[in-house]
Amino acid sequence: MPVQVGEISWQQTPAAVLLSLPLRGVCARDADVFCTESYLKVNFPPFLFEAFLYAPIDDANSKAKIGNDMILFTLYKKEPIMWETLCVSGVDKEMMRTIREKSILQAQERAKETTEAAAAAKREDQRYALSVMMKIEEEERKKIEDMKENERRKATKELEVWKKCQREAEEQKRIQRKEKCQQKQAKEEREKAKPKSFTRSSASSHRPPQGRNSENIFSEDDSIPAPRSVGSIKISFTPRVFPTALRESQVAEEEEWLCKQAEARRAMNTDIPEFCDLKEEEKNPDWLKEKGNKLFATENYLAAVNAYNLAIRLSNKIPLLYLNRAACHLKLKNLHKAIEDSSKALELLTPPVADNANARMKAHIRRGTAFCQLELYVEGLQDYEAALKIDPSNTVVQNDAEKIRDIIQGTELKSS
């Protein structure tokens, strides 16, 4: 049963009432204050105070200050008169109940009006924001249209200038052709006007005298040599692997390079279309997987990657090959390749059943580890949470996921 607070003190002026209500251990978080124009209630368990005020007050502007184990009310009167008492006298239980219900209804109506006013203001703000956005979009659209129109006019103007230049060039060429034709016709007319009684003898009789500066190269006694006999020339080329000429290359260095390339192709398993140079056991993906596992156990991660590469070339549908190669890439800090191999293993480990649950969990953990080493902690946490869905009782994964959450929270706090 609540304890009624009776020790109160109040003072008044023609405009306001100052009410002091002592409450032990009161704080703003736990105190429930309800005030209307004729009713005041303070609920601070186990204490309860209520007052049926002598005259109406302006509850919208009235104030309450909580601190130092008391609540200090400043109640502004609606009418500037002096009250005889703080509470109205002669109030029975029925009237109290009526006043309480009326006060609650008034508070509900006011809250409803406030909510509706806030909703109306929000709708008005949204309409205003929408109109502003439409205006901005309209201005932007008009700006773009103006830019397009300016570009179109500029292109049209440039096209007209180009066409004018082309016409001028064509006109210039036509004039030049016309002039050439006229010159050719004039030359032909001059040739026709010359006398045609010119013979060899007269030409020889009018031949200039031979001297040191007028020597005749071909005389009548000169004879033209006979043409050469027909023959064929055979050319033999040196067989070359490289397209360069033999004089421009070094055979020894090139042969050594070819041998190294062949060894590299055999080591990286990129030259095995027919698997002609492999042993019988090397053609078995399971044998290669075991070989890679042994190399991984001896920390020879590069050789293990080569073994898994060859096994994948032989059979690319075994998810454990990609899963084990992802572990090697993690050791070698090839983080992006580890993510790719883990994702490929998860693609092959479908549908998710109980038999492949352990492999799926390892794939999520390895991909999450690679993400975290790349400082992509959110993506890494997603993979760890996926692994926990597969095995919720794994304490190691739980601890690692918690550490990642702490890192993410610390990063957010630093950024904020």
Automatic annotation (TrEMBL):
<dbReference type="InterPro" id="IPR008978">
    <property type="entry name" value="HSP20-like_chaperone"/>
</dbReference>
<dbReference type="Pfam" id="PF04969">
    <property type="entry name" value="CS"/>
</dbReference>
<feature type="compositionally biased region" description="Basic and acidic residues">
    <location>
        <begin position="174"/>
        <end position="194"/>
    </location>
</feature>
<dbReference type="GO" id="GO:0036158">
    <property type="term" value="P:outer dynein arm assembly"/>
</dbReference>
<dbReference type="InterPro" id="IPR037894">
    <property type="entry name" value="CS_DYX1C1"/>
</dbReference>
<feature type="domain" description="CS">
    <location>
        <begin position="3"/>
        <end position="87"/>
    </location>
</feature>
<keyword id="KW-0802">TPR repeat</keyword>
<dbReference type="GO" id="GO:0005886">
    <property type="term" value="C:plasma membrane"/>
</dbReference>
<dbReference type="InterPro" id="IPR019734">
    <property type="entry name" value="TPR_rpt"/>
</dbReference>
<dbReference type="GO" id="GO:0007611">
    <property type="term" value="P:learning or memory"/>
</dbReference>
<protein>
    <recommendedName>
        <fullName>Dynein axonemal assembly factor 4</fullName>
    </recommendedName>
</protein>
<feature type="region of interest" description="Disordered">
    <location>
        <begin position="174"/>
        <end position="225"/>
    </location>
</feature>
<feature type="repeat" description="TPR">
    <location>
        <begin position="361"/>
        <end position="394"/>
    </location>
</feature>
<keyword id="KW-0539">Nucleus</keyword>
<keyword id="KW-0963">Cytoplasm</keyword>
<dbReference type="InterPro" id="IPR052004">
    <property type="entry name" value="Dynein_assembly_factor_4"/>
</dbReference>
<dbReference type="GO" id="GO:0120293">
    <property type="term" value="C:dynein axonemal particle"/>
</dbReference>
<dbReference type="GO" id="GO:0007368">
    <property type="term" value="P:determination of left/right symmetry"/>
</dbReference>
<dbReference type="GO" id="GO:0005829">
    <property type="term" value="C:cytosol"/>
</dbReference>
<dbReference type="GO" id="GO:0007399">
    <property type="term" value="P:nervous system development"/>
</dbReference>
<dbReference type="GO" id="GO:0003351">
    <property type="term" value="P:epithelial cilium movement involved in extracellular fluid movement"/>
</dbReference>
<feature type="coiled-coil region">
    <location>
        <begin position="104"/>
        <end position="154"/>
    </location>
</feature>
<dbReference type="GO" id="GO:0061136">
    <property type="term" value="P:regulation of proteasomal protein catabolic process"/>
</dbReference>
<keyword id="KW-0524">Neurogenesis</keyword>
<dbReference type="GO" id="GO:0030331">
    <property type="term" value="F:nuclear estrogen receptor binding"/>
</dbReference>
<dbReference type="GO" id="GO:0005576">
    <property type="term" value="C:extracellular region"/>
</dbReference>
<dbReference type="GO" id="GO:0033146">
    <property type="term" value="P:regulation of intracellular estrogen receptor signaling pathway"/>
</dbReference>
<dbReference type="GO" id="GO:0036159">
    <property type="term" value="P:inner dynein arm assembly"/>
</dbReference>
<keyword id="KW-0677">Repeat</keyword>
<keyword id="KW-0966">Cell projection</keyword>
<comment type="function">
    <text>Involved in neuronal migration during development of the cerebral neocortex. May regulate the stability and proteasomal degradation of the estrogen receptors that play an important role in neuronal differentiation, survival and plasticity. Axonemal dynein assembly factor required for ciliary motility.</text>
</comment>
<dbReference type="GO" id="GO:0007507">
    <property type="term" value="P:heart development"/>
</dbReference>
<feature type="compositionally biased region" description="Polar residues">
    <location>
        <begin position="198"/>
        <end position="217"/>
    </location>
</feature>
<dbReference type="GO" id="GO:0005634">
    <property type="term" value="C:nucleus"/>
</dbReference>
<dbReference type="GO" id="GO:0043005">
    <property type="term" value="C:neuron projection"/>
</dbReference>
<dbReference type="InterPro" id="IPR011990">
    <property type="entry name" value="TPR-like_helical_dom_sf"/>
</dbReference>
<dbReference type="InterPro" id="IPR007052">
    <property type="entry name" value="CS_dom"/>
</dbReference>
<dbReference type="GO" id="GO:0051649">
    <property type="term" value="P:establishment of localization in cell"/>
</dbReference>
<keyword id="KW-0175">Coiled coil</keyword>
